[in-house]
Amino acid sequence: MNWTWFHKLASPPHAYRIAARLIPWFACPAGILIAAGLYGGLVLAPADYQQGDGFRIVYVHAPSAWLSMQVYATMAAAAAVGLIWRIKLAHAVAAASAPIGASFTFLALVTGAVWGKPMWGTWWVWDARLTSELILLFLYAGVMALRASIEDRDRADRAAAVLAIVGVVNLPIIHYSVYWWNTLHQPATLTKLGKPSMAGDMLWPLLAMLLGFTLYYAAVLLVRLRGEILRRERDAAWLGTEVAR
Amino acid sequence: MAATSAFQAACHAYRRDLVLAFRHWGQVAQPLVFFVIVATLFPLALGPQLGELREIAGGALWVAALLASLLGVELLFRADHADGTLEQMLLCGQPLAVLVLAKGLAHWTVCGLPLVLLSPLVAAGLGAPTAANGTLVASLALGTGILSALGAIGSALTLGLRRGSLLLGLLVLPLAMPALIFGARAVDLAVHGDSARGPLLLLSAMLVLAMTLAPPAVAAALRISAE
Amino acid sequence: MNSFLAMGGYAAYVWPCFALTAVVLAWNILAARRSHAAARRVALRRAAARTGP
To answer: Domain spans of chain A?
Structure first.
């Protein structure tokens, strides 16, 4: 089997060029899906039996929470690839993913808290999922802070990679611990900040938003990735001609 | 002359760290004092009623132990990094993860164990009944082990960085939260006279996981940091 | 239209959430582009310095 296409992908100038061509292929479907999801969620979907129109926040909260975890997993996977096979491009993907993931974790936290206010009466509750998201935000902050504190880019990439992998191994433990901790102190009747059980009309906009957000992440990742490639290829010969295009 | 086995090298590393620690026992005592100071902050902040303090004793003790461990973990690699011993360890051909495990055990013996032994005294100050001491000591013995392992990872990653201590806290504390949840819960159960078997077993599982997975991670981090 | 904006009384919670989402989506795009542009400027400058005077 001819693996040239694979090896080419890992080559920075090739990746730089391909990323540029791929961006619209992710950005356009993302835009359409998000627009459709918003329309479906805000206008078409019927109000929830228990939560009224307040439940519509799920259409931004759930995709953000989903993305926050998906991006962390991607970042850790890229970090592992970078460490094991010493592929700089993988480190570039990890570096590019971190701020995106952190922003969505932040969004998930704030929308979750705001959603909780009319449902529970307070601006913040130590709900299992919100607490997990908060700890995830700390993990993102750690990876970004570590990378920023080390001047040598290579060392920074590899240290941040080790940390990301340690974090991803810890994530299931953290989720389980927080869930268990949360059930300890709550009366059983308290409603959880969950998705209300959804009928078709309510469900498809959510799926559209989920897919739309994922494609959006891919598009933004590719944009950031181009910058990260340039930073890591500081003195390479291909830069002059390629970048001036 | 026969080549040194990994086990012999590990024993040597363990003994060396103990000897060095005893030479500078003032440095080693600092986390211990910090533990007592932080524990003292709680009554000062919340009021002297032992009955009320008893309710938060588990949490307060564990938070204090967590912060003190964080302080202590800096001692693990700093001296060796400064005088070049770390490079020797990287080059000596012995499995680095084994040496790291030995150093970690030495560090726990010197920083974690005294804290564990002192804890019943501090717990009494927070209103905990003496009946809870068994669980307290067990939970902190397991917990300080977990914290040593996690702290070693953080310490290896931030080796030689400016303001590394601050960054260390940011990196390690989120990872330590599960241990905190179960450890504090164990002490809390004991203070109220209930069995803490569940949380203690979970802590044991976490410690086994930490002792198995942390040394290779620390070794990888040391290679990255020491180049 | 008014009942749509009112969101069954939950308007004060629903609309800020969607507004914040729009902000985060916009920020991601802008920050990514700014990051690439900055890296590009540096790369061009260095390439020029190499082939320089």
So the answer is: 27-39+54-184+193-244
Nearest-CB residue to A220 (from C16, C28, C51): C28
Say yes or no: C3 contacts chain A, CB-CB below 8 A: no
- Report pLDDT digits (tens) over C23-44: 999 999 999 999 999 999 988 8
Burial class (CB in 10 A: 0-12, 13-18, 19+), A197: exposed
Range of the domain at C28: 11-50
- Chain A residues with CB-CB distance to C35 below 8 A: 223-224, 227-228
Instruction: Tell me the angle at which helices A200-232 and A12-39 cross, rounded to the nearest 10 degrees.
Output: 160
Which pLDDT does position B36 carry in this prediction? 96
Is the Cβ pair B225, A155 closer than 8 Å? yes
Which chain C residues touch A114 with a CB distance below 8 Å?
A: 13, 16-17
Which among C17, C39, C47 has CB closest to A227? C39
Tell me what pLDDT residue A185 has.
67
Nearest CA to CA, how far is C53 from chain A (Å)?
A: 15
Any chain A CB within 8 A of the CB of C26? no
Residue A146 contacts B where some CB pair is shorter than 8 Å: yes
Average pLDDT over residues B169-183: 95
Residue A2 or residue C18, greater confidence = C18
Q: With the CA atoms of A200, A61, A148 and A89 taken in that order, what torsion angle do they form, in degrees rounded to the nearest 10?
A: 10
- CB distance from A207 to chain B under 8 Å? no
Number of domains in chain C: 1
Phi/psi for A52 (5° steps) reads 65, -145
ipTM, 2 decimals?
0.91
CB distance from C42 to chain A under 8 Å? yes
Over residues A153-197, the pLDDT tens digits come to: 999 999 999 999 999 999 999 988 888 888 776 544 444 455 556
Cross-chain Cβ contact A173/B178 below 8 Å? yes
C7 close contact with A: CB closer than 8 A = yes
First to last CA, chain B: 31
The per-residue DSSP string of A97-161 comes to: HHHHHHHHHHHHHHHHHHHHHHHHSSS----HHHHHHHHHHHHHHHHHHHHHH-SSHHHHHHHHH
> Residue ranges of the domains in chain B?
6-226
Q: What is the pLDDT of residue A189?
A: 40
In angstroms, rounded to a whole number, what is the distance separating the alpha carbons of residues B107 and B103? 6
Q: Do chains C and B touch (3 or more CB pairs under 8 A)?
A: no
Q: Which amino acid is at B35?
A: F
Neighbours of chain A (3+ CB pairs under 8 A): B, C
- The sign of the CA dihedral A48, A53, A56, A58 is negative
C40 has a chain A CB within 8 A of its CB: yes
Residues present in chain C in total: 53
How is B47-69 classified by DSSP, letter by letter? -S-HHHHHHHHHHHHHHHHHHHH
CA distance B177 to B172: 9
